[in-house]
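Side project, low priority. Logging it here so it doesn't get lost.
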Amino acid sequence: MIHFIKNEQQVKAVNACLQQSRFILLLVRKGEVQLKMNTDMILVQARELLILPEDKSCTIKGLGNRSHIGILSFTRAFAFGNATRNLQPVFFMFLMAGKPFRIQLRPKDMSWLFLLFILLRVKNNTAEIPGTDGEVLQLGFDILLWELRRLYRYYSPGITVTYTIKHALVLHFLDMLNTHYKSQHQIQFYANALHLTADYLSKTIKQVTGKTAKQFVKDSILREAKVLLQEHLSIQGISRMLGFNSTQDFSKFFKTHTSLSPTAYRKKLSPQNSK
């Protein structure tokens, strides 16, 4: 969820969101905002970025004159679901930090980050081009993660992140999935490779990421299928490339998770249908 706040009337709806178990990015473009986090009062001023982990809820207690605040909040399940496979490990930097991160940004860093907030807000709320806005939202979120990692490294070069055994396990799973998702759709394959039971692997992934192992496999296949359906490839060929035994199996899988057959999805992407 993304909110832009300029006056006190907009604060109430935002405070309800800030009480949920979400990661929160608060960026002050102009003015200042007073927050209550647990029992502490915090004043965040112009060009400051505050990143709160999901267990640190806060409440806006006041705004300065002519303030302009951007707030982005998301669950870990959203992060792992929308970050591309290569960027999912980047998110662990924020997931495992476990404490608030506050920095005073240079003007150019603040402007660029605020533009990313606007892009994500627009693509989260509209669907102007059928079939593509989801990809743009994902790309925007990827760029946001890259930018946050750059800011961490630039403003806090000495920051270190220690991986727990469970976090390392999830990273291994994601790395394997990136290599084998087209040919291996069963969780048992990944569990065997990691010398674990499928039940333990699934529970650990759910606990750390908020998503099940099956969801990760499904999302990887769907993401690739949507890309391939934009190419001049036959449905039969795509089915084989994604490890399905038949075109019927692939079509059933795709329609179950998108409500469209592969052919209908492809037609929806055509220029004639976007006018």
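Brief comment: The chain has two domains: 2-155, 165-265.
Revisit when time allows.
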